[in-house]
Amino acid sequence: MPRAVLFDLDDTLFDHSGCARCALEAVHAGQDAWRRTPFDSFALAHARILEMLHRDVLAGRRTIDEAREERFRQLLIETGGAADPALARAAAARYRAEYVTVRRAIDGAAALLEHVHSRLSVGIVTNNLRDEQIEKLRACDLERHIDVLVVSEEAGVAKPDPAIFHLAIERLGCAPSEAIMVGDSWDADVIGARAAGITPVWFNPGGAPPPDPSVPVLRKLSPADAALSAILDAHRR
Description:
37% of the residues are buried. The radius of gyration is 19 Å and the shape is elongated. The chain folds into 2 domains: 4-15 and 104-236, HAD superfamily/HAD-like (Rossmann fold, 3-Layer(aba) Sandwich); 16-101, Putative phosphatase, domain 2 (DNA polymerase, domain 1). By secondary structure, it is α/β, with parallel strands linked by helices. 54% of the residues lie in helices and 11% in strands. It has helices at 16-29, 32-35, 39-58, 64-78, 85-101, 109-117, 130-139, 152-155, 162-172, 186-195, 224-236; strands at residues 4-7, 121-126, 148-151, 179-183, 199-203, 217-218. Helix 3 (39-58) packs antiparallel against helix 4 (64-78) and helix 6 packs across helix 11. The longest helix has 20 residues, at 39-58. It has 11 helices and 6 strands.
C-alpha cells in the first residue's frame, strides 16, 4: 500500500494551458499588428520563446517579469513589428492581468486532492518559482490539501532529475517504493519518477499515444473515487 501521492501542478492540477491561451488571446486581439498574424502561428511563436526564456527564469538569469517583457519584445520582432519596449511592457502587463483573472484548477482537481488527502500524504513536485506556484494553489483553494510543496527554484534541481522527487518523499517520510507520481509531462514526470524509483501515472487527458504502454494512464481527475482507484491500481501492478 502506498503512503503518498505526488502530483505535478501545471496542467495536472492547475489549468496553465487554458489560462495562458485566454491571456494570449487577449494580447493578440489588443494590437493591430498581431491581429494580422493568425492566432495559431502567434501562439506557436509565443510558446517557443516562452520555453527558451523560462529556462533563464529557472536558472536565475532573469526575473519572471523581465522574461515576460522580453517574450513579447521578441514576438513583436517575429511578427514584423519594431522592438518597442513600451509596447512589450504593456503586452506583458495585459497578459499577466488576464492570466490572473482566469486562474482555475483542472476539473476535479480539488475533489481528488481532498479524497487522496483523507487517506494518504500529498506532495506537489513542480518546475517553477515558489511564489508563483503558491499563488496558483491559493487561488484555486488547493493548498489546504497538500502536505509538501517542492519547487525547482528552492530545490536547486528540476524534474526529471531524481533528486527533486527524493526531496519530496524525504519530506513526506516515505520511501520511493511507497509513493506514486501523477503528472502530464512524459519527460519530466514519468521518466523522472521512474528514475527516482517511484511509480509513475501519466495524466493524459488528450489521449495521446503513450511512449511506453506499460505506464498507467489517467485520463481525467473525476470522479475522485474512480481517479484514486486508478492511481492506487498503478501501484499494485
